[in-house]
Amino acid sequence: MGILEVKNVSKNFGGLKALNNVTLDVRENTVHAIIGPNGAGKSTLLNCLVGKLIPDTGSVMFDGQSVLGRKPFEINQMGISRVFQTPEIFGDLTVMENMLIPIFARRDGAFRMHAIESVAHESAVLEQAEKMLIDMKMIDKRHMHAASMSRGDKRRLEIGMCLSQEPRLLLLDEPTAGMARADTNNTIDLLKQIKAERDITIAIIEHDMHVVFSLADRITVLAQGTPLVEDEPQNIRGNPKVREAYLGETA
Amino acid sequence: MLGLGKKDTTLLIVVAVLTLCAPFILNPFPAGSAMAQFNAGYPDLMQRFVIFGIFAVGFNILFGLTGYLSFGHAAFLGVGSYSAVWIFKLFTYNVLPAIALSVVVAGLFSLLIGFVSLRRSGIYFSILTLAFAQMSFALAYSVLSNPKFNLTNGETGLQVYTDDPQWFHSDRLPDLPHLFGLSMRATHTMHMGDWSFSFNTGYYLCAVVMLLVFYLAIRIFRSPFGMMLRAVKSNQQRMNYTGLNTRPYTLAAFVISGMYAGLAGGLMAAMDPLAGAERMQWTASGEVVLMTILGGTGTLIGPVLGAGFIKYFENIFSKINDTVLHGWFGFLPDGLEDVMVFIVHPFIGKGWHLTLGLLFMLVVIFLPGGLVEGGQRLARWIRGRRAEDSRRKTEPAE
């Protein structure tokens, strides 16, 4: 039984069938990659998982509970964290503050009005944030404005922010899009390290086959809104159906 | 000190000293001199400085931290004034209950308006708040002042009449707003040589209240709540996907800043016990936006500076007339004198808006961070020069 179970999910935009009867099982403590050509419905599927879109039919269960109809912040509170294609961080805030916010959110829930006590006095939260910044190798950048960092650093910060909430499921939307090879390899190493050190399930949407085949335990191939195959990487590589729909097309 | 960091403590102390010594600082020119018209140390204007300072500090909690630009904050100020005057009419001239009620009523009113307006963001939010404020203005100006139900007294403005009940009023107490018998208008004038300084009870009440709420604003800015508000401004999307519900955060900020506006309105009524609908008009809402931007959005002291700046211009520049100008340019030959007066004329008296507009444009273009940025640049420049000087001194002549 998977931690995330997607059953018969369909989503139409006007006449376009973005998702057609998608069924998907993400098993606990695995890295599950979702690949497919452009327009296959990968992003639509992801948006259905995090509450940005509501599917027309079907169900999405996380850890035995339905996520449908819940708002993004509620789904995050359930234990799903999302990393965006372009890093979404708090650009006007410092790196340290960026790290503090998810930790406060984890501790206090969706809203708490502590408007009097200074942030500087929250030693437990500060410590936790510092630890995570050390883990992400960006403690020396803690006073920098987040917006002024490089793309790779922003990505690392965003992943760190998600991890600081100790999510059970981490969703990554093309985490290496627009990155140089060196940054891509760093990101792969970071994700491998995260997987090795934590009890965490990772679902990753990716274009880059190099990333997919170095990380994934299981791969689902989407094409035209329908899952084509779901299997282990070595079987995907040789699958003629996949070659035709995806690899063949791009080659 | 007081749970603040070192920098904030210094800021608070500086502000405290400046406000408490304002009667001296704002009256630098001898009473009889030609420059005396630039003195701002008279009670009426000093009260306005701090009251609008409170208004702008509160507005900045919403606009500076969350980035939601409300164009209807004057409505809360007006509601605060009306509530205070009703306390004067019905119960007592003591200002404390009046101010308390004005804060509470403005808080409730902003909860209602905020709840509806905050469903939208950006320009739609601004337009919604503007619409609500103009609605409130129309209600106060005409709808709620019919003979059967006269809440606002329409055009005339709400004021205290001799046949009002004033249940807790007694003959021993002054017939004006007071604090346990101490009249708000009581002014002690101190003469030192040619100089004269006025110490007004009302001003000091306002000053103490401003220091309290300024302190509160610093605490809010430095708290986790304040950090969340800045995060809302920076990236709402990330907020939502971090498990935070942005709506209650923005609503809380909206209500807090509405209460600040109500407090300002209550104090205004406490200084002068009447309330008119024009206080709620959109120009009044726009003025607080100008104050905040001019002073420095999102900074602690900026709004106070902006409020002081605008109120100074409004009251001092508008009083300069052609006679005064002729006095200034009297040393010039006759023809030239008239030319100079002709050139300067549009910028003074009723034309003070023009001067303010030009200054506002200059600040926005060259100092996007407002007067605070100007101050910072100046400080950096001085520090840079000093560093250069000391470097020059330490380097021996070769």
Automatic annotation (TrEMBL), chain A:
Alphabetical list of SMART domains matching this protein: AAA
Recorded GO CC terms: plasma membrane
Regions annotated as coiled coil: none
Record's keyword annotation contains Transmembrane: no
UniProt xrefs under Pfam families: ABC_tran
Origin: domain of life: Bacteria
Keywords of the record: ATP-binding, Nucleotide-binding, Transport
GO MF entry, a single one: ATP binding
Domain ABC transporter: 4-249
PANTHER family: CONSERVED COMPONENT OF ABC TRANSPORTER FOR NATURAL AMINO ACIDS-RELATED
Protein name, entry field: ABC transporter ATP-binding protein
Organism: Pseudodonghicola xiamenensis
Lineage, top ranks: Bacteria, Pseudomonadati, Pseudomonadota, Alphaproteobacteria, Rhodobacterales
From TrEMBL, chain B:
Species of the source: Pseudodonghicola xiamenensis
Keywords: Cell membrane, Membrane, Transmembrane, Transmembrane helix
GO cellular component: plasma membrane
Any Pfam family: BPD_transp_2
Name used for this protein in its record: Amino acid/amide ABC transporter membrane protein 2, HAAT family
Segments forming a coiled coil: none
Membrane-spanning ranges: 12-29, 49-71, 91-116, 123-144, 202-221, 248-268, 288-313, 325-348, 354-372
Main location as per UniProt: membrane
GO terms assigned for molecular function: branched-chain amino acid transmembrane transporter activity
Subcellular location: Cell membrane
InterPro entries (alphabetical): ABC_transp_permease (IPR001851), LivM-like (IPR043428)
Keyword Phosphoprotein appears in the UniProt entry: no
